[in-house]
């Protein structure tokens, strides 16, 4: 049959999206499944966001191509926002708006990497980093962050994996899937180390407004001018404003690289969807009350569900500080229920317990499962009860 490019043979489909799609299909067929899979808020964006997008369509501002980098008012609003929240100074020309943060990362790797360039990726990592690096002919170099160290990597651990080909490091704080948030001091140490070795810092800060129980995330670029120069800041509206379907993310950083990202996007996507850009503009320029309301809701859910998950037989967890996931070591649970691997255990949960989670394999942590807790507490309770019954039933068989 048809030839498939070599490029496509080095990557796998996103396991988060694939599991979520599988569950959706099973649900549509009438199967009773609680989905704790995909990482997205269950809330909806504020009314003013929806109104702004609709108004832009109705008065014909949003129906045509926009500049590839995004409409200027949105780029300016992004710059103003990061000035307000992080004390950062950028020019609007240093921003490219893209179809979600996913495409911001994809385009950045295409621009900065040559064949064989190495990218340090602390694991557990978000599933798309390794695949996007490979698609740019780069080499992902995994640096394992241990659960006992709160899933944080140290400069020493990174140094062991550094080579003459190391081009960049990806720092994702708060982290998907662990919810780990690096402190200001830790980030500064990592940042200074990257600067010393002339490494690009890819700072994926998409969850940085979602921290709980007194934890706070800082933007690494705000820690010194030297670090800022090396940093490409990745963010977007998907998580903070419950706008995953709108597909708006962005990169801010060095002008020459941003210009090349714009050139590439001019051939790949032309521009992010017009109505979405107007919605994102309203979200970013809004009072931000919505973000705080959502953060408070998620904090409540975390504090509710975490102790329940912690008590599940064979589950070992570390309390997350941000994002909206609990990452649980289930190697014991898999063993006691007779499964060969945690991936099989996760499959058993879907098929027999009616609870869908994402297996840790795609995050570089095969002994773990990721539980997304963006659901109402009553549903979370039901999900945990189902998991508990499933483990107890299997254990006794
Ligand atoms: N980075 C991380 C760490 C994520 O979890 C996600 C999840 N979607 C993204 C980037 C991509 O976000 P977006 O939906 O804006 O593409
Ligand atoms: N980032 C989310 C997740 O990890 C959305 C799915 C995806 O883009 O991978 O579930």
UniProtKB/TrEMBL annotation:
<comment type="similarity">
    <text>Belongs to the class-I pyridoxal-phosphate-dependent aminotransferase family.</text>
</comment>
<dbReference type="InterPro" id="IPR004838">
    <property type="entry name" value="NHTrfase_class1_PyrdxlP-BS"/>
</dbReference>
<dbReference type="GO" id="GO:0008483">
    <property type="term" value="F:transaminase activity"/>
</dbReference>
<dbReference type="GO" id="GO:0006520">
    <property type="term" value="P:amino acid metabolic process"/>
</dbReference>
<keyword id="KW-0032">Aminotransferase</keyword>
<protein>
    <recommendedName>
        <fullName>Aminotransferase</fullName>
        <ecNumber>2.6.1.-</ecNumber>
    </recommendedName>
</protein>
<keyword id="KW-0808">Transferase</keyword>
<dbReference type="InterPro" id="IPR004839">
    <property type="entry name" value="Aminotransferase_I/II_large"/>
</dbReference>
<dbReference type="Pfam" id="PF00155">
    <property type="entry name" value="Aminotran_1_2"/>
</dbReference>
<dbReference type="InterPro" id="IPR050596">
    <property type="entry name" value="AspAT/PAT-like"/>
</dbReference>
<dbReference type="InterPro" id="IPR015424">
    <property type="entry name" value="PyrdxlP-dep_Trfase"/>
</dbReference>
<dbReference type="InterPro" id="IPR015421">
    <property type="entry name" value="PyrdxlP-dep_Trfase_major"/>
</dbReference>
<dbReference type="InterPro" id="IPR015422">
    <property type="entry name" value="PyrdxlP-dep_Trfase_small"/>
</dbReference>
<dbReference type="GO" id="GO:0030170">
    <property type="term" value="F:pyridoxal phosphate binding"/>
</dbReference>
<keyword id="KW-0663">Pyridoxal phosphate</keyword>
<feature type="domain" description="Aminotransferase class I/classII large">
    <location>
        <begin position="31"/>
        <end position="386"/>
    </location>
</feature>
